[in-house]
């Protein structure tokens, strides 16, 4: 029994095995064979062959294989040649008139594939033949978005050199700089004019993303805020710093210190030593210094008056009594005056602090996220209770005595915390905290 010969099967098998002579013979004997539909298309099979891809491709094209045939993903032979980084096949397809901006089902063109695979040769062929550099896919991403996301530095440089825009946004308003994880790619994009403060649809900027997840990129992004005019060896060298990159438009709700605070919370102290950050912090300190000194004075007054009031009630619990000897009456009078003045001063400073905290909560409730704000709030509440328990404190013992002692301790702790914010003293307070923590752990 003789088996029927299937030319389609033979041609498919010959392409899979890269038998160019067999392919040429089959096409010669079956001139109309190429008109039959194949999945994947004939040209795709030729490009996917293990060898002799260009020879097979030319044989099929000469036989009339459709150059724009697509597979189930909507990809043409141009997409496949670019995706497999076969620049010789890509060049031949372009010479034969393949549509350079053909899109697949995800609206990607060949340049998206070249950017994804970091193929400078394919990119050069596509750009030289006039492909659209900034065409977007169904997610709004250009080839530069794809290259940046994949960390394809060679592709990024090639695209930027040929005029690709680093400022185009995808459907989530992300620029290529939002997507990259590679410091070298970030540096190339910044040098090309990418904006490190551009917010996406969620309000995140490339700089804030880098601080959160990719700290190695942060120095390159911060450097975009620096400009040098003049010779570096010249005494008239001018250095310009753009501090707005730390407080981009739209970040007012988070506070202008939010980015630097994130660096501190994540232990990225080396980043805080960057000239941009140090300059910003220095100018910020000069601006708030007078108000900060007033704040320290108010809390210091509260602490002194609270300490005096608690100590006087603890050491001299008896009330002033007229049935006393002259020396006792004189001493008691001094003590009573001390109690009265200390309480008046305590109420005065407590009123100021309470009004400040109420105003702060009304303007920015998120301030409660700070541990310092919680310390102030607890201290204020405890001080109010102490002030209202004067009658109880005239009696020895009781919970009010313990609360008074705790409140005094909290007030002095608050003074220590505030003094730690002063740059000249902060290093010693920080050292004290570290040593104390170690001592507690070892004890």
From TrEMBL:
Positions of transmembrane segments: 288-308, 340-362, 374-391, 403-422
Gene3D superfamilies per UniProt: Ankyrin repeat-containing domain
Swiss-Prot/TrEMBL keywords: ANK repeat, Membrane, Repeat, Transmembrane, Transmembrane helix
An annotated GO cellular component: nucleus
Stretches forming ANK repeats: 43-72, 73-105, 106-138, 139-171
Superkingdom of origin: Eukaryota
Keyword Repeat found: yes
PANTHER family for this protein: ANK_REP_REGION DOMAIN-CONTAINING PROTEIN (PTHR24201), ANKYRIN-1-LIKE-RELATED (PTHR24201:SF16)
Name of the protein in question: Uncharacterized protein
Lineage per the UniProt record: Eukaryota, Metazoa, Ecdysozoa, Arthropoda, Crustacea
């Amino acid at each position: 029994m003789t088996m029927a010969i299937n030319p389609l099967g033979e041609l498919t098998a010959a392409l899979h095995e890269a038998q160019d002579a067999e392919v040429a013979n089959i096409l010669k004997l079956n001139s109309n064979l190429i008109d039959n539909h194949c999945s994947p298309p004939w040209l795709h099979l030729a490009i996917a062959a293990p060898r002799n891809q260009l020879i097979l491709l030319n044989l099929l094209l000469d036989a009339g294989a459709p150059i724009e045939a697509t597979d189930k993903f909507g990809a043409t032979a141009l997409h496949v040649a670019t995706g497999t980084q076969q620049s010789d096949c890509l060049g031949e397809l372009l010479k034969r008139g393949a549509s350079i901006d053909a899109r697949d089902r995800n609206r990607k063109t060949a340049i998206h594939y070249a950017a994804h695979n970091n193929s400078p040769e394919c990119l050069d062929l596509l750009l030289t033949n006039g492909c659209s550099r900034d065409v977007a896919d169904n997610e709004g991403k250009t080839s530069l978005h794809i290259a940046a996301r994949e960390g394809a530095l060679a592709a990024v440089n090639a695209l930027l050199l040929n005029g690709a825009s680093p400022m185009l946004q995808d459907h989530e308003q992300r620029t290529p700089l939002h997507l990259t994880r590679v410091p070298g790619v970030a540096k190339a994009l910044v040098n090309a004019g990418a904006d490190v403060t551009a917010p996406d649809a969620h309000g995140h900027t490339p700089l804030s993303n880098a601080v959160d997840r990719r700290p190695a990129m942060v120095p390159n992004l911060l450097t975009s805020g620096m400009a040098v005019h003049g010779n570096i060896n010249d005494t008239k060298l001018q250095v310009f710093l753009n501090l707005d990159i730390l407080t981009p438009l739209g970040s007012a709700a988070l506070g202008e210190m939010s980015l630097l605070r994130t660096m501190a919370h994540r232990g990225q102290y080396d980043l805080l030593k960057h000239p941009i950050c140090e300059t910003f912090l220095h100018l910020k300190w000069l601006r708030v210094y007078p108000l900060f000194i007033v704040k320290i004075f108010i809390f210091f007054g509260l602490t002194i008056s609270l300490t005096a009031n608690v100590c006087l009630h603890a050491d001299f619990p008896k009330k002033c009594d007229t049935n006393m000897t002259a020396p006792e009456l004189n001493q008691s009078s001094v003590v009573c005056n001390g109690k009265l003045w200390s309480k008046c001063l305590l109420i005065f400073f407590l009123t100021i602090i309470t009004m400040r905290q109420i105003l702060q909560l009304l303007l920015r409730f998120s301030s409660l996220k700070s541990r310092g704000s919680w310390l102030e709030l607890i201290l204020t509440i405890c001080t109010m209770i102490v002030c209202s328990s004067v009658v109880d404190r005239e009696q020895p013992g009781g919970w009010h005595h313990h609360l008074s002692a705790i409140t005094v301790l909290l007030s002095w702790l608050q003074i220590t915390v505030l003094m730690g914010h002063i740059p000249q003293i902060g290093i010693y307070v920080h050292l004290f905290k570290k040593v104390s923590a170690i001592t507690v752990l070892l004890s």
